């Protein structure tokens, strides 16, 4: 990976300070990453020079067409897809998943079954629960005490009635990475579709749909340095078969079939720039754009994993702090480290860190079932520290010192 100073220089927000004049520490990434100059520039460039609706005969319209086409090509490379027709855009992941679930609801029959997991963000649960009103049965895969999927219990839920498994790639609350290859195998054995919520994984590691072969995969560009755009990958020609909500003039084939209304063209220019930014993090030149991006994301994974290890180790030694999720030493884990401090509301801890210029989230992060299952709802859920390629070792130590101070103030 390019050295850290290259990465940090690209983000204007990293130059700003808090009210006390000290640099801010951005550990809020799982709620949305910071945005580098090339993305900001691409968006403003669109409004300055190319702003128009698509499919016209005039220059700005043709340029807008090219921007949309390019965004599909870049996302195709990011995901390792074989066709741009597999790449649809929408307002955000949640909206796309609701659109898709409503369409699949008309495709499935009463008595068909869908499996969701207790580890997931609610954006990959509520859309499927809505289908119960059509007689579709939703089953819930439970988790273990370590906040990993209970695979034995999961396997028992699968049957010939299972039409869809809706599963996250990684938990946005505790960083668990699910064994997707195994689950893909199981879904094949019963003839079920597999939908993957890759929103939390996408900023932290490579995605290769050619290898995993999900039927659907969703992610969100604002988590990987881009603007607010939802992305849906659908296996080639799969969307063509599904009755999506659409207006009559809209194309009845993928990828447009699920894209209601006018897309956010400026943001799509930003999506391309974000993917380009990722590709540029890799120092060596690789043969294809997909390889370039995948190597860059593998390098991001190692860099973040190392820092997450330091953070995790430091927190482990704090006597009144409890960590959640699998240990960071595990090879497959996102650099999202969540904890509670005995006797403290998580919002209190987040406020104390905010006073020191350390930006972290607290709560359930919409992973509601997981928080209930961990028994920490009363405590206000978790405090979540999310690392990014722009996080530094100094920031990790500054954060650990700040958490230690909160602990000492509370417990002496
Ligand atoms: C794992 C996960 N899935 C889904 C979502 C929803 O994404 P969006 O905000 O694009 O709807 C989030 C957002 O935080 C998330 O972390």
Describe it for me?
The protein has 412 residues and is α/β, with parallel strands linked by helices. It has two domains: 4-37 and 290-411, Aspartate Aminotransferase, domain 1, CATH 3.90.1150.10; 41-278, Type I PLP-dependent aspartate aminotransferase-like (Major domain) (Aspartate Aminotransferase, domain 2), CATH 3.40.640. It has 13 helices and 13 strands. The strands form three sheets. The protein has a seven-stranded mixed sheet with strand order 2-8-7-6-5-3-4, sandwiched between helices. Strands 9-10-13-12 form a four-stranded antiparallel sheet, covered by helices on one side. Helix 5 (126-129) links the parallel strand 3 and strand 4. The mean pLDDT is 97. The structure holds pyridoxal-5'-phosphate. Pyridoxal-5'-phosphate binds next to helix 4.
What Rg is obtained from the alpha carbons, in whole angstroms?
21 Å
Mean pLDDT: 97
Number of helical runs?
13
**Coarse morphology:** globular
Question: Which fold name is given in CATH as the topology of the largest domain?
Answer: Aspartate Aminotransferase, domain 2
Structural class: alpha/beta
Low-confidence stretches: none
Bound molecules: pyridoxal-5'-phosphate
Strand content: 5-15%
CATH class of the largest domain: Alpha Beta
How far apart the termini lie comes to: 42 Å
Question: Looking across the biggest beta sheet, what order are the strands in?
Answer: 2-8-7-6-5-3-4
Q: How many strands in all?
A: 13
CATH superfamily of the largest domain: Type I PLP-dependent aspartate aminotransferase-like (Major domain)
How would a textbook summarize the main sheet? 7 strands, mixed
Helical content stands at 25-40%
Order of helices and strands: HEHHEHEHEHEHEHEEHHEEHEEHEH
* CATH architecture verdict of the largest domain: 3-Layer(aba) Sandwich
């Amino acid at each position: 990976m390019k050295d850290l100073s290259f990465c940090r220089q690209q983000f204007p927000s990293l130059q700003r300070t808090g009210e006390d004049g000290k640099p801010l520490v951005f550990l809020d990434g799982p709620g949305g990453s910071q945005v580098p100059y090339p993305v900001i520039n691409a968006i403003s460039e669109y409004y300055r020079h190319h702003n128009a609706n698509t499919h016209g005969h005039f220059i700005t319209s043709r340029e807008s067409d090219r921007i949309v086409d390019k965004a599909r090509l870049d996302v195709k490379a990011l995901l390792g897809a074989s066709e741009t027709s597999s790449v649809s855009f929408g307002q955000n992941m949640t909206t796309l998943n609701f659109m898709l679930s409503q369409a699949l609801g008309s495709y499935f029959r009463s008595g068909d079954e869908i499996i969701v997991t207790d580890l997931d963000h609610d954006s990959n649960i509520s859309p499927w629960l809505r289908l119960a009103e059509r007689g579709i049965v939703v089953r819930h895969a439970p988790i273990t005490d370590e906040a990993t999927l209970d695979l034995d219990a999961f396997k028992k839920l699968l049957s010939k009635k299972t039409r869809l498994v809706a599963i996250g790639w990684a938990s946005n609350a505790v960083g668990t990475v699910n064994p997707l290859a195994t689950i893909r195998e199981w879904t094949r054995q019963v003839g079920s579709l597999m939908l993957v919520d890759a929103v939390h994984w996408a900023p932290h590691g490579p995605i290769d749909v050619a290898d995993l072969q999900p039927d659907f995969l969703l992610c969100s560009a604002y988590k990987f340095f881009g603007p607010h755009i939802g992305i849906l990958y659908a296996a080639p020609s799969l969307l063509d078969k599904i009755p999506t909500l659409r207006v009559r003039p809209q194309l009845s084939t993928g990828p447009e079939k699920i894209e209601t209304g006018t897309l956010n063209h400026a943001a799509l220019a930003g999506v391309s720039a974000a993917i380009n930014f990722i590709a540029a993090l890799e120092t060596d030149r690789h043969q294809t754009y997909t390889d370039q991006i995948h190597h860059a994301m593998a390098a991001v994974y190692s860099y973040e994993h190392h820092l997450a290890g330091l953070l995790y180790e430091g927190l482990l030694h704090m006597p009144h702090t409890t960590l959640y999720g699998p240990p960071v030493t595990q090879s497959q884990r996102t650099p999202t480290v969540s904890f509670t401090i005995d006797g403290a509301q998580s919002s209190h801890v987040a406020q104390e860190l905010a006073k020191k210029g350390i930006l972290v989230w607290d709560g359930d992060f919409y992973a509601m079932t997981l928080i209930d299952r961990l028994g920490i709802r009363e405590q206000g859920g978790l405090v979540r520290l999310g690392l990014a390629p722009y996080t530094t070792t100094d920031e990790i130590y500054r954060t650990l010192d700040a958490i230690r101070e909160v602990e000492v103030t509370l417990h002496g």
